[in-house]
Amino acid sequence: MSNGTVNFQIKNGIGTLSFEHPAANSLPLALLNTLAEKLQELDHRADVKTIVLTTSGTGAFCAGASLKELKSITSLNDAESFFLGFATLLNAIRKLQKMVIARVHGKIVGGGVGLVSCCDYAIATTAASIKLSELSIGLGPYVIEPAVSRKIGANAFAQLALDCHAWKSAEWGLHKGLYNYMVKSEKELDSLVAETALRFASYGAEAIKTLRQLLWKDTAHWEELLVKNAKITARLALGNASQKILKSLSI
After folding, report:
1. Residue 133's domain spans which residues?
2. With contact defined as beta carbons under 8 Å apart, do 14 and 48 qualify?
3. Number of domains in the chain
4. In angstroms, what CA-CA distances link 71 with 140, 165, 247?
5. 129 domain residue, yes or no
6. Are 233 and 83 in contact (CB under 8 A)?
7. Where are the beta strands (DSSP E) in the chain?
């Protein structure tokens, strides 16, 4: 469980991919890479028409980058590999042929916001508060910026990044376009996610593939951009300001 777990099940054309990590569903490098691999596997399966991304537990949906792993990194090569894991995952989602629905039951932080932003459709509960905390630890949300800005716009992204100390409500996320629908309970969440996934799965595969290409137009440059931003983040992570903050954290 130190690297987390990833599981998926397939039913009625719906591939449900679930991940879990004991530290609030945070994302170490191994988990990032496994998620990218499993998403690609589901995308290639003929018996999967739509993908649902979810996490386990009743707490946070995703706490973003694993601060414990980040705190242990001492070399630039390892730091770059860590943040390139986020670039790899976001680019993997970008290049899928099938729609991805995020089932967001709880809070999302940092890289978790980027992950939800990359999904084509997000359904959340009122508990799904949002925070980009990177500036508070001497970093910046550079790798995920293209995904978040694409979803909610540059001004909302800037507000979220600069208000790194504060949570934004799920209502804020709905208003800004991060979430497509918001419900009050997990029971309602499960019902709406299932209904939406079955509806998406009923659409023609070629039509969905073409629509997704249109929705993701003008993003091919992310292949290089996210890598560039990952390397910028890696250098900052090893800088004095970030190191001082990371060492002060009891993780």
Report:
1. 5-188
2. yes
3. 1
4. 16, 20, 7
5. yes
6. yes
7. 5-11, 14-20, 50-55, 100-104, 108-109, 121-125, 130-131, 181-183
